[in-house]
Fold this protein.
Amino acid sequence: MSMTDPVGDMLTRIRNACRARHRKVDIPSSRMKESIAKILMNEKFINNYVLIEDNKQGYLRLYLKYDSDKTSVIRGIKRISKPGLRKYVGKDQIPRVLNGLGIAILSTPKGVLTDREARQVGVGGEVICYVW
């Protein structure tokens, strides 16, 4: 069975694992998903991620981050651009998530970037998701 939205599946797995208070979550790997995981790690939403190779596709293991009172650092994660309706923005229309408290992840010609990085570089692109 083919999957129509692999990135949406990744975000749903992360959301479900955070709500269930799991320490880690395994996700089938791709370059796009690895770029998103790298951004989540750099922005301190997850502790770490590891690419585990097998004889097939391989998978990403994300180690989730929690506060001292065991609430997830990721309060919300939302898919914006979907396979049925893509959302593109120019460099002047890049959205702010919760007035800068969250991040928007964009797929640009310069690679997968956060909203802050895309504004600095001066490029627009496809809005993949919001994380706060």
